[in-house]
Design brief:
The complex is a heterodimer of chains A (about 850) and B (about 675). Chain A is mainly beta and about 850 residues long. In chain A, about 15% of the residues lie in helices and about 40% in strands. Chain A has 7 helices and 57 strands. In chain A, helix 3 packs across helix 4. The longest helix of chain A has about 35 residues. Chain B is mainly beta and about 675 residues long. Chain B contains 5 helices and 55 strands. In chain B, the strands form 14 sheets. A 4-stranded antiparallel β-sheet of chain B has the order 2-3-4-5, with no helix packed on it. Chain B has a 4-stranded antiparallel β-sheet with strand order 6-7-8-9, with no helix packed on it. A 4-stranded antiparallel β-sheet of chain B has the order 10-11-12-13, with no helix packed on it. The longest helix of chain B is centred in the C-terminal third of the chain and has 9 residues. The chains are: A mainly beta (about 850), B mainly beta (about 675).
Chain lengths: ~850, ~675
C-alpha cells in the first residue's frame, strides 16, 4: 500500500468490533475480538485496549482460544491464514497458511492439532456454498507453515459462524442451514439430518438462525426466524429425536450460547435484551434489557464469570454473570450517516450520527467513543418499519460552545415532523445541555445550516426547502425575563421564490453566501441586505465554500460539471474548471481546499488554493466508490514536512468516509515512523527483566529529574489545573491493570495535586500551625503519657542512624498521627 | 351434480358435554371416554378412532374416573357409586355403593384382580374383581382428607395416593400405611397460600412417583427415600392429569391452560444409561381445562372442558404418513342425532334429555319437551318413537295445517322395553326395534295401536348391540349392523335372516338400501365404500371396481366418518353422503378419480368448456360450502336439508377459559 510518494491512505480505526463473536480469556481479564484485520485485546475491567495483534492482511473472521494452552489464541482471516498468538504479550507465534479464505474457525479439546474451518466449496471458489473442513495443523518449528492437509466434514453449510457449533467434548458438530439441522458424529462418522416444515398452520417461520450445543449434556439449542428456541435431544435417532420449543423473542433469534457449566442458555436478538434461560426450569428466565443495538453475538468466559454481548452498533457489553453490566467497549457506530463529519473544537473528537437519535463523539486518536449525546431523547424501539426521529443535521459554533441539531421524522410520508435544537456546552457538567428547542423551524426540511464564525455574535443560518433561509440569534427573551438566553428568529430571507440549498459564512463572518439553484446570493450579515448575486449557469449549485486566511476574498462553488471560483472584491469569476466535484471542503487552519471528484468508479482527490487554479496535490483513485463525507481535523502538534506536496497535511489531517463506510485518512512517512517508534518504546525488552511498571516509573523519574535540573517551577502564582500534571496524566491514561499498587502511587498523586509551596502561602502556613499547636495543647494533658511513649520509641529506633529528613508527605502523616486520639491506650493501661 | 333448494338449519342447539375421564384398554385398543353428563363412549383406536358405542348415563352420577379391568369397564363418580358397564348392550350392568362418600378416583392393578377406590372420607377401598361382580375386600389405613388420585405400582403390592398437600404410599398386602412419604408436600415456590391439591399421581415400575398438583408443578419423587428428585413448573395454573406411556418413557401432562405437555425419559448424554425426565413438546389443542390425557403408543389423546376429543399423533413413532399421522379432533358423535320425515318435511332433533320436532319451510318450531335419557328415535309420517334407557314410547302425530298434536300410544307390546335403534318401514306399517344381542323386534302399526309380530335373530348369534338399522323402500328387506362390524340382512316377507354381508375390518358408520336396485350401500369408518346387492347376495360390480381401483388419498385422509347415506329419488345413480365438513354426491355412472387427478375439481370444471368437462369429471362431487354438518338429507321435493352446528356457537356456550397473557395484546 505504501507508495513512492511517501504518503498513503490508511484506514483509521472505527473497525467493526462486533463482526465476529469475541472471546474472553480464561481468567476473565481480557476480551479478544476481531476488528478489521486486527485482533484487539481489551481489558474487561478497564475497557482499555491492551494489545493489538497485527499481522493479518484480510478481515479477521474468527478468534478462538487454543484448547491446549489458554494463554494462546488462534485467529483466522479471509487472507487464508490461521495465526497463533500469545495475547498476553501480543506476540505472533505461528502462521498456518491454508490458502483459502477462511470464514470461521472451531476447535475442541478432543481434536488436538486440528482446526475446523469454514471455506468455500472447492468446486466454485466464489460461490455461495461453504463447507466445514478439518485442517491438520502441522507441528514444525518454523514460524510460517503450510497447512494443506484437510478433510471435509460437512458440506453445504452456512458461512455464518453462529450456525455451526461443536458438541459436548467435540463428539459431534451441529450445523444449521435453511430449515435443516445437520449433526455429524465424529466417532461413528455418521450424519443425521432433521428438517422442519416450511411453515405450520400459524404461519411460523421455521428457518434456523443459529445453533449452540450444551457443554455437558447432549442437547442442541437452535434459534429460529420467528423467535422460537428449540432444544433438541436424542438426535442420534432418525425418528425418535425430540425437541421442546420455547418462545420469547418476537423476532428472529440472533444468537445462542450455553454457559460453561450448562446451567443457563443465553439468547439475544433484535430486541437487544439478553435472555437467560434456566436449563433446569425451562419456564424461568431472566432478562437484561436495553443493551443497545441488536445483539449479534454472545460469548461466555471459560470460568463462567463474565458474559459478553456484541451489538450491531459496534459495541461489546461485558456483563457479570449476575446479569449486571460491568463494562462497555464502544467502537465507532456506523449506521446511517446524515450529518456532516464534524470535529468538536473542544475535544477534537469526530462527531457524527451514532446510535439512532444520538450524536457520537469519537476520539480519532484513541479509536474509542468518548460519549454519545442523546439528541432525540426518546426511547428507540428496535423494530423494523417504524418511523422514528433521526438526527439529520448538526453544526458546531466556532468555539464549540453551541451545537445545533435538526431531527426529523416522517421523511417518507408527507407529514414531516422536525425540530431544531440548540445545545450549549456546560463547563461544570462537561457536556452539552439543551438550550432551545424550536419545533417546525421551517415549513419543510432543513437542508443546510451553519454558525457565523464571527466571535461577537452567535448566529445560526438555516436553509430549507420552503424557499426561505432563516437567521437565528441568541438573545434574552423579553417576555419571560428568564436569566438564560435563548434563540429566536432574527431574519427570514428569500430570493425570487427559489429553493435555497447551501449557505456559507465568510471567514470573518461579515458575508453570508446562500445559493438558490443556479444563483449565489451574497448578503451582509449586519444589515441583511442583498449585496450581490453571482450566477454561472448551467446547473444548480451543489456546494459553496469561502476561502480562508489570505484567500478569504474567494468564494468557491460547484455544479454538476464545473468548479467555480469567484473573487468577491471584483464580484467576478476568477477561474473555473470543468470537473465533477462531489465534495468540497476547506481547511479551517490554512488556505487549502480539498475537492473530491468521482471519476469512473473511483474518487480522485485534489488539494488546491483558491488563489491559484493549479492544484497543490492530486491523487487519483483514492478509494473506490464515492466519498460520502470528509473533514479536516486540526493536528495537536503540526508536522514539519519539508516536501512541498505534503505541506497541506502539516496543520490538519483529512478524514473521509467512503461508500463502504470506511473511515480513511492520509498518513505521511514521517508519521508512520513516529507511530512505529512509539510502539517500540512501549514494547518490553525481554532481555532485561523490566515490567511495564518499570517503564512507567522510570519515565516518570526521568521527567522529575529533568524538572529538578531545569530549576524551580514557574507556576507559582497561577493555580495549575490538575490536568497539567504529568503524574495524573500518567495515572489516568494508563490502563489500570498495568498500574502499580494504589498505595505506591498515592504519594506521587497527592504531591502532584499540591500547590507548590512558594510566595504568599508561606506567610499563611505558620498561622495554621499555631492554631494547630494551640489545639493540641488543650488535650495534651491526657496525652502526656502517650507522647512520651512515642518519643521513647522514636529515640530507640534512631539510635544508630541520624534521623532522616522527613519529606513533606511524611511530615503531614506525622501530624495526622499526632492528632489522633490515643486516650484508649491509657484506658487500657489503667485497667 | 344438479342444483338444490337448501334448507339451512341452524336451530339445533346440540351441546356436547365436557370430557371428564379417559381410560385405555391396550389389548383391544379401546378408549373409554366419560363425559360430565354421565355418558360413556367407547372409541376404537384401531378403527380410526371410530366411536363404536355410546352408553347413556345419568348426570347425577358425576363420573370422576374410569378403569378397565381386562375387557370390563368400571366407572366411579361423586355420587359414591361404582358402575360396571355392559359393553355388549350399551347399558350399565350394575351399580355398587362404596360407602365412602364421593369417589374421586378408581384404578385397577395391572394383574386385573383388584380395584382401588379413593373416597372423600380418606379411605382407599380395595375391591376384588370376580367373574360377574366386584366384592369389597378391605379398607386401607384411613387418612384425614379426601383421596384425590390413586396409582398402583405395576407389581400390585403398593399403591400411591395423592391427597391435599400429602402423598401416601400404602402396602396393599397389609393394608397399612407403608410410608408417610411426603409429610408436607412442598409448597415452597408457590405464592398461593391455600392448600395444594395433588390432582394426579403415577407410580412407575422403577419406584419413581410422579405427581401433578394445583401449584402447576410436576414433581418426580423417589418412593424409597421419599425425596424429591426434580420439580418442573409446567404452568401457572393447575396440572390436572398425568398419563405415562406403557413403556414408561413418555409422560403426558394436562393443564388447565389447555396445554398438553410431554415429558420424555431421555439419557442426557447419548449412549449412557443415566436418564432423566425432560420436558419436550407442548401441544396446544385445547382452549379449556384438559381434564384427561392418555398416552396411547403412537398418540396422545386428550379431552377436557372444551368437549373436544383430540388425538395428537406422535410422529416419531409412526412410520409412514397416513391416517394414523393425522391430527384428529372429534367434536360431534359418529352417529345421527337428527331424524327426518322426507314427505312431511319434519325434523326431529335428539337432545340428551328431550326431543324437538320442527317443520320445515316455516319459521316456527315445535318444542317437544320430555324428560328422557337418550337413545334412538325415528319417525315416518305419522309416528314418533323413542326409547330411553328404561322405557320405549310410541306417539301418533297429527299434523293438520299448523296444528301439530301428538297422542301417546298407550298399549305397547311388553317386549319393546328398551331399544338401541328404532326404524320404521317406509310405508309406516312396520316398526323395527333393535334390542339386546343383535336381535330386532318387529311390530305392526295400525290405527288401533302396535302389535308385536316376531323377533329376528342373526345366525351368528353375536351378543353385540346393533348400531344401525336400514329398511328397504319396498318393505322387503331390513339390514342391521352391529359393533362387531357384522351386517345382517333379513327378509321381511319371510321374517327370516336372508344373508350376512362379508365382515369388513372396519365398522359401518352409515348405510342405506337403495330404493330401486335394493343394493345396500355401506360406508365404513376407514372411509371405504361398499355396495352389496341384497338380492344377488354379492358385492355389486361398482363396489368391486372401487375396491380394485382404490379411493383417492384425499378421500381417505378425511378424519370424520360419514354419518348418513341417502339417495336421490330423481336420479338413482346418485348417492348423497356427508361427514362433518362436507357433503358429497357420488355419481356411479362416472369414472372413479385417478390418484393423480384433482379431487376437488368443481371449480376447475366450471371454468372449462362443456366438452372438456366430461373428460375431467369423476364420480365424487364434493361440496364444502356448509361447515360443521350434523345432518344432510334430500327431501321428496328435491330440496336439501342441511343441519349445521357451528363450533363457534358451542365455544360461546363454554365457560370462560383461564385468562392468559398473549403477546401484543
Amino acid at each position: 500500500m505504501v507508495e513512492e510518494s511517501g504518503i498513503r491512505v490508511v484506514r483509521c480505526g472505527g473497525n467493526k468490533i462486533s463482526f465476529r463473536a469475541p472471546i474472553i480469556s480464561k481468567d476473565s481479564r481480557f476480551l479478544l475480538c476481531a476488528s478489521g484485520d486486527l485482533v484487539k485485546v481489551f481489558s474487561t475491567s478497564t475497557e482499555e485496549c491492551v494489545h493489538v495483534l497485527e499481522g493479518h492482511t484480510g478481515q479477521v473472521t474468527g478468534v478462538i482460544l487454543n484448547p491446549t494452552n489458554h494463554l494462546q489464541v488462534y485467529s483466522c482471516s479471509a487472507d487464508g491464514t490461521i495465526r497463533l498468538w500469545d495475547f498476553i504479550d501480543g506476540i505472533l507465534i505461528k502462521i498456518f497458511v491454508c490458502g483459502w479464505p477462511i470464514f470461521s474457525i472451531y476447535v475442541s479439546e478432543k481434536h488436538v492439532g486440528i482446526a475446523f474451518i469454514t471455506i468455500h466449496m472447492e468446486s466454485k471458489k466464489h460461490g455461495e456454498n461453504f463447507q466445514l473442513v478439518a485442517l491438520h495443523l502441522p507441528k514444525v518449528p518454523e514460524q510460517e507453515v503450510e497447512a494443506r492437509e484437510m478433510s471435509a466434514v460437512l458440506c453445504n453449510i452456512s458461512s455464518n459462524p453462529g450456525s455451526t457449533a461443536m458438541g459436548r467434548g467435540g463428539e459431534y458438530v451441529a450445523s444449521v442451514m435453511g430449515r435443516q439441522l445437520t449433526v455429524y458424529f465424529f466417532k461413528k462418522l455418521k450424519t443425521y439430518r432433521f428438517s422442519l416444515k416450511a411453515t405450520d398452520k400459524k404461519g411460523a417461520k421455521n428457518a434456523f438462525t443459529c445453533v449452540a450445543c450444551h457443554p455437558k449434556d447432549d442437547c442442541i439449542a437452535t434459534g429460529h426466524e420467528d423467535g422460537k428456541i428449540r432444544l433438541w435431544r436424542n438426535f442420534n435417532q432418525k425418528k425418535e429425536y425430540t425437541y421442546s420449543t420455547q418462545h420469547w423473542h418476537h423476532d428472529a433469534v440472533g444468537t445462542l450460547c450455553f454457559t460453561t457449566e450448562g446451567m443457563h442458555l443465553l439468547s439475544g436478538g433484535v430486541e437487544s435484551v439478553l435472555v437467560q434461560w434456566h436449563c433446569e426450569e425451562v419456564n424461568k428466565k431472566d432478562f437484561l434489557p436495553r443493551l443497545g443495538g441488536a445483539i449479534s453475538h454472545i460469548c461466555v468466559s471459560p470460568d463462567g464469570q463474565m458474559y459478553s454481548t456484541s451489538h450491531l452498533d459496534n459495541k461489546i457489553n461485558i456483563i457479570h454473570c449476575s446479569l449486571k453490566l460491568s463494562a462497555v467497549i464502544q467502537g465507532l457506530v456506523k449506521g446511517n450517516i446524515w450529518t456532516d463529519l464534524m470535529i468538536d473544537p473542544r475535544t477534537r473528537a469526530l462527531v457524527m450520527n451514532g446510535r439512532p437519535g444520538h450524536l457520537q463523539f469519537y476520539s480519532l486518536q484513541q479509536d474509542k467513543q468518548l460519549y454519545s449525546l442523546d439528541i432525540v431523547q426518546q426511547e428507540y424501539i428496535n423494530q423494523e418499519g417504524l418511523d422514528q426521529f433521526e438526527v439529520m443535521r448538526a453544526a458546531f459554533s466556532v468555539g464549540g460552545t453551541w451545537l445545533a441539531t435538526v431531527e426529523e421524522r416522517g421523511r417518507c410520508t408527507s407529514d414531516l415532523e422536525s425540530s431544531l435544537k440548540l445545545w450549549v456546552y456546560n463547563e461544570k457538567a462537561q457536556s452539552f445541555e439543551l438550550n432551545t428547542t424550536i419545533t417546525a423551524a421551517h415549513q419543510d426540511r432543513i437542508m443546510h445550516m451553519c454558525f457565523s464564525p464571527s466571535t461577537e455574535t452567535t448566529m445560526l443560518v438555516t436553509t430549507a426547502w420552503d424557499n426561505q433561509f432563516k437567521v437565528w440569534l441568541l438573545g434574552l427573551d423579553s417576555d419571560t425575563q428568564k436569566e438564560h438566553a435563548s434563540w429566536s428568529c432574527d431574519y427570514v430571507g428569500s430570493y425570487h421564490g427559489l429553493q435555497p440549498t447551501n449557505c456559507c459564512f465568510s471567514s470573518d463572518g461579515s458575508l453570508l453566501a446562500v445559493s438558490f439553484k443556479e444563483v449565489v446570493t451574497i448578503w451582509s450579515s449586519d444589515t441583511w441586505e442583498l449585496l450581490t448575486t453571482l450566477c454561472q449557469p448551467p446547473g444548480p449549485i451543489r456546494e459553496l465554500c469561502f476561502g480562508r486566511l489570505s484567500c478569504s476574498k474567494y468564494l468557491l462553488g460547484t455544479t454538476a460539471k464545473n468548479l467555480f471560483c469567484w473573487n468577491l472584491l471584483t464580484c467576478s469569476l476568477e477561474w473555473s474548471t470543468p470537473m465533477d466535484v462531489c465534495l468540497l471542503r476547506s481547511d479551517p487552519l490554512s488556505e487549502n481546499v480539498v475537492a473530491f471528484s468521482l471519476h469512473s468508479g473511483n474518487t480522485d482527490l485534489f488539494v488546491f488554493r483558491p488563489s491559484e487554479p493549479r492544484p497543490l496535490f492530486t491523487q487519483k483513485a483514492v478509494c473506490g466508490g464515492k466519498v460520502q463525507r470528509c473533514v479536516f481535523s486540526p493536528r495537536e502538534e503540526p508536522l514539519d514536512s519539508c516536501d512541498e506536496r505534503f505541506q497541506w497535511l502539516n496543520r490538519s489531517r483529512l478524514y473521509f468516509l467512503t461508500e463502504l463506510m470506511e473511515l480513511l485518512t492520509f498518513s505521511t512517512k514521517a508519521e508512520d515512523e513516529r507511530i512505529l517508534n512509539s510502539r517500540k518504546q512501549l514494547l518490553v525488552d525481554d532481555s532485561v527483566a523490566v515490567t511495564p511498571f518499570y517503564l512507567l516509573l522510570g519515565k516518570h523519574r526521568q521527567q522529575q529529574e529533568e524538572k529538578q535540573n531545569s530549576g524551580v517551577s514557574q507556576a507559582a502564582d497561577r493555580v495549575q489545573p490538575p490536568q497539567a500534571s504529568v503524574a495524573i496524566k500518567e495515572l489516568l491514561h494508563t490502563p489500570a491493570h498495568v498500574l502499580p499498587a494504589a498505595s505506591f502511587l498515592c504519594s506521587m498523586f497527592v504531591n502532584s495535586l499540591l500547590i507548590s509551596n512558594t510566595g504568599s502561602r508561606e506567610g499563611k502556613e505558620p498561622a495554621e500551625q499555631v492554631e494547630e499547636s494551640e489545639k493540641e495543647e488543650d488535650d495534651s494533658e491526657e496525652e502526656m503519657e502517650t507522647h512520651d511513649y512515642e518519643q521513647e520509641v522514636r529515640t530507640q529506633g534512631s539510635v544508630e542512624e541520624a534521623p532522616p529528613l522527613l519529606s513533606k508527605a511524611e511530615e503531614k502523616e506525622l501530624r495526622r498521627v499526632r492528632k489522633t486520639d490515643f486516650s484508649w491506650v491509657t484506658n487500657l493501661a489503667s485497667s | 351434480m344438479g342444483e338444490f333448494n337448501v334448507h339451512r338449519v341452524r336451530f339445533f342447539d346440540y351441546m356436547p358435554s365436557a370430557i371428564r375421564a379417559l381410560a385405555f384398554q391396550p389389548q383391544r385398543e379401546r378408549i373409554a371416554v366419560a363425559r360430565t353428563d354421565g355418558t360413556v363412549e367407547i372409541f376404537n383406536r384401531a378403527d380410526c378412532f371410530f366411536q363404536e358405542k355410546v352408553i347413556p348415563g345419568r348426570q347425577q352420577a358425576a363420573t370422576e374416573a374410569l378403569a378397565w379391568v381386562g375387557d370390563r369397564l368400571f366407572s366411579a363418580g361423586l355420587n359414591g357409586e361404582i358402575i360396571e358397564y355392559d359393553l355388549d348392550n350399551n347399558k350399565t350392568k350394575y351399580t355398587i355403593d362404596a360407602y365412602g362418600g364421593p369417589i374421586w378416583s378408581i384404578t385397577s392393578n395391572k394383574q386385573g384382580t383388584h380395584l382401588a377406590v379413593g373416597c372423600e372420607d380418606g379411605t382407599v377401598k380395595l375391591f376384588e374383581v370376580h367373574e360377574d361382580r366386584i366384592q369389597f375386600e378391605r379398607n386401607l389405613a384411613k387418612q384425614k382428607g379426601r383421596i384425590i388420585s390413586l396409582s398402583w405400582h405395576p407389581s400390585g403390592s403398593k399403591i400411591v395416593a395423592g391427597m391435599m398437600d400429602v402423598i401416601h404410599i400404602f402396602d396393599t398386602e397389609t393394608g397399612k400405611l407403608r410410608a408417610l412419604a411426603f409429610p408436607s408436600y412442598d409448597l415452597l415456590g408457590t405464592s398461593r397460600s391455600q392448600e395444594c391439591v395433588v390432582w394426579s399421581v403415577v407410580y412407575l415400575s422403577d419406584g419413581t412417583i410422579i405427581s401433578g398438583d394445583s401449584a402447576g408443578k410436576v414433581k418426580m419423587w423417589d418412593s424409597r427415600t421419599g425425596t424429591l428428585i426434580k420439580s418442573h413448573q409446567v404452568t401457572k395454573w393447575d396440572v390436572l392429569t398425568l398419563s405415562v406411556s406403557q413403556d414408561e418413557t413418555s409422560l403426558a401432562v394436562g393443564t388447565s391452560e389447555g396445554h398438553v405437555v410431554q415429558f420424555q425419559f431421555l439419557s442426557m448424554v447419548l449412549g449412557q444409561e443415566d436418564k432423566e425426565w425432560v420436558r419436550t413438546r407442548t401441544f396446544k389443542n385445547h382452549t379449556h381445562d384438559v381434564r384427561a390425557v392418555l398416552e396411547v403408543n403412537t398418540a396422545i389423546v386428550s379431552g377436557g372442558m372444551d368437549t373436544q376429543f383430540v388425538v395428537r399423533p406422535l410422529l416419531d413413532k409412526i412410520d409412514e404418513r397416513g391416517q394414523a399421522s393425522a391430527l384428529r379432533n372429534i367434536q360431534f358423535p359418529h352417529r345421527r342425532l337428527v331424524s327426518c320425515a322426507r314427505k312431511a318435511g319434519l325434523l326431529l332433533f335428539q337432545y340428551p334429555g328431550h326431543l324437538e320436532l320442527w317443520r320445515l319451510g316455516e319459521s316456527e318450531g315445535n318444542g317437544e319437551r320430555k324428560r328422557e335419557n337418550t337413545t334412538l328415535s325415528i319417525k315416518r309420517k305419522r309416528w314418533i318413537a323413542y326409547s330411553t334407557v328404561a322405557s320405549f314410547r310410541l306417539y301418533r302425530l297429527h299434523c293438520e295445517n299448523n296444528n301439530v298434536s301428538i297422542i301417546k300410544v298407550s298399549k305397547l307390546p311388553k317386549v319393546l322395553s328398551s331399544a338401541n335403534q328404532i326404524c320404521f318401514s317406509s310405508d309406516s306399517s312396520h316398526l323395527f326395534v333393535a334390542s339386546t344381542c343383535s336381535s330386532v323386534h318387529v311390530a305392526i302399526l295400525n290405527q288401533s295401536g302396535c302389535k308385536f309380530v316376531c323377533t329376528l335373530k342373526p345366525k351368528s348369534g353375536s351378543g353385540q348391540a346393533i348400531n344401525l338399522l336400514a329398511a328397504s323402500e319396498d318393505g322387503k328387506w331390513l339390514a342391521s349392523a352391529n359393533s362387531d362390524h357384522e351386517v345382517q340382512i333379513y327378509n321381511l316377507n319371510k321374517m327370516k335372516p336372508h344373508c350376512t354381508v362379508p365382515v369388513h375390518s372396519s365398522g359401518v358408520s352409515a348405510m342405506a338400501i337403495h330404493p330401486t336396485t335394493n343394493n345396500l350401500f355401506m360406508v365404513h369408518a376407514d372411509q371405504q365404500l361398499t355396495e352389496y346387492s341384497v338380492e344377488k347376495k354379492q358385492y355389486t360390480d361398482w363396489s368391486r371396481q372401487v375396491q380394485r381401483h382404490g379411493l383417492h388419498s384425499l378421500w381417505l385422509e378425511r378424519d370424520t366418518p360419514v354419518t348418513n347415506v341417502t339417495f336421490n329419488p330423481k336420479n338413482p345413480a346418485h348417492i348423497v353422503l356427508h361427514d362433518m365438513y362436507m357433503f358429497c354426491i357420488i355419481d356411479q355412472t362416472l369414472p372413479l378419480p385417478d390418484q393423480r387427478s384433482q379431487f376437488y375439481n368443481q371449480l376447475t370444471l366450471r371454468s372449462m368448456p362443456e366438452k372438456e368437462r366430461k373428460k375431467h369429471s369423476h364420480a365424487f362431487k364434493m361440496c364444502k360450502i356448509f361447515k360443521e354438518l350434523l345432518f344432510v338429507e334430500l327431501m321428496e321435493d328435491q330440496s336439501l336439508v342441511v343441519v349445521e352446528r357451528p363450533l363457534m356457537d358451542i365455544t360461546a356456550q363454554l365457560p370462560a377459559p383461564v385468562r392468559q397473557k398473549k403477546f401484543a395484546t
